[in-house]
Design a protein that fits this description.
- Helix 9 links the parallel strand 9 and strand 10.
- It contains 20 helices and ten strands.
- Helix 7 runs parallel beside helix 8 and helix 12 crosses helix 16.
- By secondary structure, the chain is an alpha/beta fold.
- It is globular, with a radius of gyration of 25 Å.
């Protein structure tokens, strides 16, 4: 979590949640803190307005149903006040009527989310706000591809997007759209559902089939309005489905959100490549453990999927597995490669690698969860781990997964002090330790059910 010079939390990492439901306030607060944000809560509209002025949060999550005034009134009030007009507001509400959505968007909401919302979805949307660059122009010459056969619609759309600051390329057929998209030069694609050669659904499928284009956001603008058409669009890979004539206000907000998401995805891709470089450096430090970190990352993802982890959570597991031993870069190499038993001072130094790792990773924006897992990946359910002797529920699910993945991979690999164990023997050892209270039985059960998948890593 970012801090200022006095140790306080920076304003831009603070989120105000305005909701009259106590359970929602608790749930969102826990989600935000888990992802490295500070949460401030209000249970009434006027309290929310007061806290927005006093706390100056970097983002506000706002419910529409409040006990004193409506959420739309709160939104309007905050948008007209000089001190709060620039604070992004995401409406999180059980109300899903189109009229309310449009009113909120027209009044300046950054995004609109219908309850219930998952952890992954909430944090992804919050990060869209915090990953945006301070002072960035709306379009900032972001390259956009328009695939539209209508001369009138294409011309009007191009002119409008250009006025918002986007760099526009316009083509009129599906095949031209696919060829342009294949260059990988666009951060967002807008296309019609009905095109003269192939329909928009097929265009999206071909774009999505190319791995390097798999994350490019796609908005479908079409006269098709039936539920079947919308479902077909989402199944083909469309991110947003808008009917013609589209509201400029909604299109503007959707594009702003999607282009920021694209920027975040690009940043994560670059970070992932950097992580690969760091991982290679760790492997060179520990020459006896080829691909250990990559394997731990792979095992963690496999276990996570088997245990129902999705989306952002799988990314966190992959990054944590890749970086869990990054602190060993600070540990003396002669200790790490010592063939015999370590003395007490040497063992104490090795144990500190988890603390070193946290210090290395924590300053990286968006890596708060990863830093926490790196610090605690040697904690055990019975409190016998290190560095904080966490016990039971204090050990998070992700820590349990990465810890078990690390232990299994270590058991099945050669070490300076012993030869590797066969997979069945390694599982037997972990099961025995589980009976003794060290591991989560559900994680070890998932590991046992995944042995064939692990052999392919």
């Amino acid at each position: 979590m970012s801090k200022d010079g006095t140790g306080g939390i920076l304003v831009e990492r603070k989120v105000l949640v305005v909701d009259d439901d106590v359970e929602s306030l608790r749930l969102y607060g826990d989600m935000l803190r888990r992802a490295g944000y500070a949460a401030v809560t209000a249970s009434t509209g006027w309290e929310g307005i007061d806290l927005a002025v006093k706390e100056r949060p970097g983002l506000i999550l706002l419910d529409l149903r409040l006990p004193d005034i409506t959420g739309l009134t709160v939104l309007e009030t905050l948008r007209t006040a000089l001190s709060t007009k620039s604070i992004p507001i995401i409406v999180v509400s059980a109300i899903s009527k189109d009229d309310d959505v449009m009113k909120a968007m027209q009044m300046g909401a950054f995004d609109y989310v219908v309850k219930p919302i998952t952890y992954d979805d909430l944090i992804r949307r919050v990060e869209l706000v915090f990953f945006s660059r301070e002072g960035q122009g709306e379009g900032d010459q972001t390259p956009v591809l328009i695939v539209e056969d209508s001369a009138m619609d294409g011309s009007v759309l191009s002119e409008q997007l250009t006025s918002w600051g986007y760099q526009v390329t316009w083509v009129r057929t599906g095949r031209e759209g696919i060829e342009q998209a294949a260059t990988g030069n666009f951060d967002i694609i807008l296309l019609d559902g009905l095109l003269p050669d192939i329909n928009g659904f097929e265009v999206v499928k071909e774009i999505r089939a190319t791995e390097r284009l798999g994350t490019t956001p796609v908005i479908m603008l079409t006269v098709l309005s039936g539920l079947v058409d919308k479902l077909k669009g989402f199944e083909s890979g469309v991110d947003v489905f808008l009917n013609k004539p589209a509201s400029w206000e909604e299109l503007r907000v959707r594009m702003r959100s999607l282009t920021r998401l694209r920027g975040m995805t690009k940043q994560r891709f670059v970070l992932s490549e950097v992580v690969g470089v760091i991982t290679n450096a760790i492997e060179l430090t520990e020459a006896t453990e080829p691909r250990h970190n990559q394997k731990v990352a792979g095992i963690s993802v496999i276990l996570g999927k088997r245990m129902g982890v999705q989306g952002h959570g799988l990314w966190v597991l992959e990054m944590s597995g890749s970086l869990h031993d990054v602190g060993k870069l600070v540990v003396r190499r002669d200790i790490l490669s010592k063939p015999g038993k370590l003395n007490s001072s040497e063992w104490a130094e090795v144990q500190r690698h988890s603390e070193y790792g946290e210090k290395i990773i924590k300053p990286v924006h968006g890596f708060g969860e990863v830093a926490d897992i790196v610090r605690h990946h040697h904690e055990k359910m019975d409190g016998s781990g290190y560095p904080d002797n966490l016990k039971g529920d204090q050990v998070s699910l992700f820590v349990r997964i990465v810890g078990a993945a690390d232990s299994y991979e270590a058991l099945t690999s050669d070490r300076p002090y012993r030869r590797s164990y066969a997979r069945d023997k390694a599982l037997e050892i972990l099961c025995k330790e589980t009976d003794e209270g060290r591991w989560d039985p559900k994680v070890i059960a998932a590991l046992s059910a995944s042995l064939d998948d692990l052999d392919n890593l």
